[in-house]
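Lecture 7 notes: from sequence to structure.
We start with the chain below.
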Amino acid sequence: MILASMILILSIGLFLFYLQATCQKILARKFDQEYFQSIVDANRLEFPFVRKALEEFDTPVDYPWICMTLKCDYLALTYLLKNAANAEQSYSREERLLMLYFRAIFGALCTLHFLKLHEKPAVLKLTAILQHFADVIGYRVNKVRFGNLSASDYLLTL
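Predicted structure tokens for the same chain:
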């Protein structure tokens, strides 16, 4: 029984390590320009302000506001990932994996808050995932231009 428990714990640990390493590799992908800014402006997303507040001003984490903001941005971006300039109307494997990773870190953030531990690294990881989603959407929209419409103009017409 003890051996089976140790194997289970080790397997879960290795799976989580593999998940994190794979997601970090996906997030390390660099785009040729910052596509996310037009998506942020068009949809009034808040995650850049959260990151800026935590990095530059070193403010304490306002847990209720940050959770609500990140959750709303996540829902908006996942909707756009599926529907904006996406002919297949579905998520790719990378997007599904990052969505799972976002949910896992969001759950960890809730646990960190409950245990009154340092929440800032988890929030910064969440904003990095949201920025990647916005970059992917911006790249797709920029690739499929409709006449003289910019990415912001196209998203406003959806």
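Points to note: Residues 2-156 form one domain. The first helix runs from residue 2 to 27.
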